[in-house]
Here is the input.
Amino acid sequence: MTASEVPVTTAARGSILRSDAAQKLLAFAAWIVIIIFFSIASQYFRTVENALSILLATTVNGVLALGVTFVIITAGIDLSIGTVLTLAAVTTGVAISVWGLPIPLGILVGLLTGGIAGVVNGVVISRMKIPPFVATLGMMMIARGLALVIPAAIYGSPKPIYFDNAPGFTLITMGSIVGAVVPILPIPNAVLILFAAALVAAFLLNRTVFGRYTVAIGSNEEATRLSGVNVINWKTAVYMVCGLFAGLGGVLMASRLNSAQPALGAGYELDAIAAVVIGGTSLSGGEGTILGTLIGAFLMSTLTNGLRIMGVPQEWQMVVTGVIVILAVYLDIVRRRGR
Here is the structure.
């Protein structure tokens, strides 16, 4: 090997280490290490029941993370997805339990609730030029208030809405189509919905004009606008898609609990954003993958589950999660600085 060949090899190796694939691989390796550690530390972690519990616990956070991935790729943020999830669950409960609508129409109401909230976010951000942090923080408060106001207007107090008149609603998430065919694999339907949503998200991001413009806006919004792309409309569409995923998360949460809990949902947005960042999506925008987001969501759920089994207090679980998020963001900064 000549001296001139050494820099080329070193540069190539450095570019691989700085690639987004490297961060996904690192997140996946960290997930495997966490699984091995907790499997050794506790026999209860190794059970099939616990594995199913981790899968089920990932569904709602995973769906939220899929939606906010698009927003973060545009270099934006959405702090409202947790409370929009709650509002979507409440409107689904009102549609099915109060109005007596069929379950499919009730689900549609929940999805539309999330989509409308996303459109409002997109319009405020793209047309009114309000920073995403401020705009979605406002929507977070609005959605939280409406989630409490609606049941209070019906029952006189913001109490949960139960789906007693729709016994099949809970089967959407807690039933098991796979278990009916293969009894030894009672995988909840919610997990299948998560993977189906991930496939849809991956198709949107990788195979459509919507996905290409999402990445382009995050890479260089001004250059994208000068190239003739209607950035305002496409950015609004990005937030709408994020809202639709939040609406789906609300439906899944309501089905899993068989009730709409008006006070639930606060803090879910932080877990979702953490999963996206851990999965390699850059907060600076312009890059991200659905596979990385899924890995990040499963890593978060596995870590939380393992710490809970080990008897670690919840406040320390939050500390560990915060440290991991900071490390993930730091790695992204280092990777971009290297480029």
Q: What stands out?
A: The CA atoms of residues 263 and 282 lie 31 Å apart. The chain has one domain: 23-338. The first strand starts at residue 161 and ends at 162.
